[in-house]
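ingest -> validate -> predict -> emit
validate: passed (alphabet ok, no gaps, 69 aa)
predict: started
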Amino acid sequence: MKKTLAEIRDERRMSQKDMADILGIAVSTYCQYETGKRNVPAETVDNIAQILNINKDDIFLPTKFTVSK
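emit:
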């Protein structure tokens, strides 16, 4: 079973605020990315994957997230 973005973030001992600060976005925006309520820009997907040291294809699946261009 694959882990969710929130689970991976928690394993790295990072809060949503930590992620939002690093990405330069609002916490509410980041939260919406995790819950799938907002499309994640492609550049942000790359940044999140790099911050969490994950392969973006392992977490940003078409069935769970929609990446916007």
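The two ends are 28 Å apart (CA to CA).
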